[in-house]
Fold DUF983 domain-containing protein.
Amino acid sequence: MKDTDERNYPSAVQSAWNCKCPRCRRGNMFEGSIFSFSRSARQMRTVCPHCELMFEKEPGYFYVAMYVSYVFVVAQLVASCVATYVITGNAESPWLYLTVACAAVIILAPFNYRYSRIVLLYWMTPSFRFRPELYDREPAKAI
Ligand SMILES: [Zn+2]
């Protein structure tokens, strides 16, 4: 029989990338795929379907994710402008940079929405740390 310490649980980065619950790393935090065009599929669940963790631990908690999203957007703006300069070599037209930067931020908006909340819950919320006993547990009733 295997000891629970010997088990290979998914890492925090792997679970965060797959949008799994930060506490059990089994339940999906979102209804559907990031590439889905359906509005309901892009919604975040209120409760983990596996361990019943309430993701929004207090009202307005996800306002903090705006600051994480702000960091993402600034990084994307800088990266898209640097990439535009490297690819085109254009130092004349500000409209080119403005267009590319706006397009990059709009295209990456679903990523920012999703992963700003995930970064907040995984690495900025100490009370949501991983609990291996919940990973092994049977899932909660369908929510
Ligand atoms: Zn969970």
